[in-house]
Amino acid sequence: MEAVPRMPMIWLDLKEAGEFPFNSAVKKSAVNVPRDFEGCSTLRKYFGQLHYLQSRIPMGAEQEAAVPVAWTEIFSGKTVTHEDIKYEQAAILYNLGALHSMLGAMDKRVAEECAAGAFTYLRDHFPHSYSVDMSHQILNLNINLMLGQAQECLLEKSMLDNRKSFLVARISAQVVDYYKEACRALENSETASLLGKIQKDWKKLVQMKIYYFAAVAHLHMGKQAEEQQKFGERVIYFQSALDKLNEAIKLAKGQPETVQEALRFTMDVIGGKYNSAKKDNDFIYHEAVPALDTLQSVKGAPLVKALPVNPTDPAVTGPDIFAKLVPMAAHEASSLYSEEKAKLLRDVMAKIEAKNEVLDQFMDSMQLDPDNVDNLDMYNHIPPILMEKCAALSVRPDTVKNLVQSMQVLSGVFTDVEASLKEIRDLIEEDEAQERKLQELLGKVPAAQGSPPASPGLAEVSRECSKYLELHEKASFTNTELHKAMNLHIGNLRLLSGPLEQVRATLPSPSLTEDDKQVLQNLKRILAKVQEMKDQRMSLEQQLREMIQKDDITSSLVTTDRSEMKKLFEEQLKKYDQIKVYLEQNLAAQENVLKALTDANVKYAAVRKALAEVEHKWNTTVQTLVASYEAYEDLMKKSQEGKDFYTDLEAKATKLLEKARAACEAAEATRQQLLEKELKKQPPPRPTAPKPALQKKPLELEPSTGLDPAEMPPLA
C-alpha cells in the first residue's frame, strides 16, 4: 500500500471551568482558548504561571491562602470543587492534553506526543483523587491512546516516504502494542464504570484497530520476505495479514463509512498480494510454507515519546509574573530536588523496564498461559455446542428411524426402476433376435450384417429406454454417494440421540500418570510465583511513584542555607532506600524464578505434547459429531429429492414397459404372418421321390427348401 487508509481517532473533550477567585481576564483567556495551537500555547503559559504562583503563595490544600477551584467532570457533567491551586493546574494540564488530542485527530494528523506528555506529567506529579476523569486508570488509558495514535501518524508518514518494509512492520506492530495496553485498560471493570457509555464505543474501535494494524504489520513482513526471496514466508505472512484483516472487518460493524472504505481498500491490497503470492509459490517456487508461530515475531519500534512538560521553561511559560513575591532560591532548590527525585525514578524504572522486557520475551517464547496449562476441566463436560445438538435430537426421537426409512424407500424405488428398465432392455434384445432369425430364414439379411431394423414402435421404445437408462445411470452415482454419506453419519446421529454418558464416553480424555500430574502442579506453582513477582513489582513501583509525588520539602528549603542544600537532598532521599531495596530483591529473584520455570517446562514438554494431541482429537471428535448433526437435514432433503425423482422415473418406466410388451407382441404377430406368406410361395414337394420326415429345428432350414407351414415352429 502506498499509504494506510485513514482510521478515525479518539479525541477528548475539554473540561469546563467553574469558580476560582483569580483575575477574571486571566481566567477567561485560560478556560476559553481557541481550538488551535495558539490555544495550546495559552494553556502552557497559564500552567507555568500557576506553578510560579503556588511556589510562592500557600494556596495548596489546607493552606492559609487556599481558595475554592471548580471544574466540570467530563464523564458525569458534575461540578467538582477543591480548595487547592494544584487542582487548577491539573485541570489546565488535562485540557492541554485534550486539546492536543483534538488537533491530532484532524486531517493533517499532527503527531500527539504533547497530548501523551501532558497526561504523563499529570499522572506523575498530581493527586489522582481530584476527579474521575483525572484518575490513575483514565490517565493511563489516555496516555496509551495518544501514543498509539501518534505512532499511527508516524506509520502513515513512513509509508508515504516509502521506508523499508521491516521498519514499517515494526512501527505498525508498536501501534498494536499501544492499543493493546489501551484495550486492557478499557476492559478493566473499574475503568469501564468510570467512562460510562463511551467505553463500549472506544473499546470497539480500539479492538478493530488492533487487528487492522496487525494486518498492516504482517503485510509488510510479507513484503520484506518477498524482497529476500523467501516465498514460503511471504505466503504465510500475507495469509496472516488476511486473517487479521477479516477479524478487523468483523469488529468494524457499525463503524462509519470511512472505516468501511478503508477496510475494503486494504482488503483489495492484501487479498491481491496473498492470491498472487500463493499462486506463484504453488506453480513456480514450490517453497514450503512455514507455520506462523515458527517465525520470529514482529517486535514493535516505539518511535514516538511523551515529551516532558517543563512548567519553568521561560520559552514556554514566558516571564515569571510573580518573580517579586517570594525568593527564587526556594523555588530553584525545589526544582532541583524534584529533578533528583525524577532521576531516582528514572534509574529505578530503567532497571524495572529492562527486567520486564526480559520477562515478557521469556514468557512469549514459552507460550505458557497459566489459565490453560492443562485444560483438564474441559474434559469433564460435554461442550455447549454438542449439548445443544443432543438437546435438539432429544425432542426428535425418530430422527435416525426417519432417515433410515427414507433411504430404504429410496432404495426400493431405485430397485423397481432398475428392474423395469432391465425388462424393457431384455424385451428389445429378444425381439431383435427373433427378427434376425426370421430374416435369415427368408434369406434377406445375412447374419454377419448385424441387427435388422426394428419396428417403428420398438425403435421409439428403444430410444426412450436409452434416455431413461442414462438418467438412471447418472442418478445411480448420486444415490450411491447419498448412501455413503448416510452410513458415515448414521452412527454419530444414533450416538447423539442416546444417553449423554455415552456421548461423554466417546469424547477423548487424557490419561495422566501421577508423575504427569506432579509435573503439572509444579509448573502451575512456578507460574504462580512469576505472577506474584510481577504483582509485587507493580505494587512497589506504584508505592515509589506515590511517595515521590507526595514528597514536598518546600517548607524545609525556605529555612535551609544554600550551602546545606545538597546535604538536605541526600538526607531526604534516604526515605526511598527501603523501597529501593525491596525492588532490587524482586528484580534479583527473577533469574532464579525463570531458571526454575525453564526446568519445569522441560519436564512439561512430553505432557504438553500428549495433552495437545488429546485436545486435537477431542476437538476433531466434537467437530465430526456436530457435522453429522448438521448433515441430517441435508440428507433428508436429498433423500426426498431422490424419492421424487425415482417415483417419477418409475411411473415412466412402467408405462414404457407396457408399451414395449405391446410392441413386441405386435412385432411377433407380424413375423408370423410374413413367415406363413413366404412359405405359401414355395413349390409343392415332388411326388416321385418322397423325402423322409424333417426334424423340427426352427430357423435352421435352407431358404430354398420347401416346408409346410403346418410344420414350422413359432418364432417366440
Question: Your description of this structure?
Answer:
The protein has a two-stranded antiparallel ribbon. The chain starts with 23 loop residues before the first helix and ends in a 36-residue tail after the last helix. The chain contains 20 helices and two strands. Helix content is 69%, strand content 1%. The longest helix has 104 residues, at 577-680. The model is unreliable at 693-716 (pLDDT under 50). It is mainly α and 716 residues long. It is elongated and about 170 Å long. Strand 1 (69-72) and strand 2 form a beta hairpin. It has helices at 24-31, 37-54, 85-104, 113-125, 136-160, 165-187, 189-195, 198-227, 231-251, 257-285, 314-317, 328-366, 384-394, 399-442, 456-497, 500-506, 514-550, 554-558, 565-573, 577-680, and strands spanning 69-72, 79-82. Among the domains are: 1-162, alix/aip1 like domains (Serine Threonine Protein Phosphatase 5, Tetratricopeptide repeat); 163-303, Serine Threonine Protein Phosphatase 5, Tetratricopeptide repeat. Keywords: Coiled coil, Cytoplasm, Endosome. It holds the Pfam family BRO1. InterPro entries: ALIX_V_dom, BRO1_dom, BRO1_sf. It comes from Rhinopomastus cyanomelas (Common scimitarbill). One of its GO terms (cellular component) is endosome.
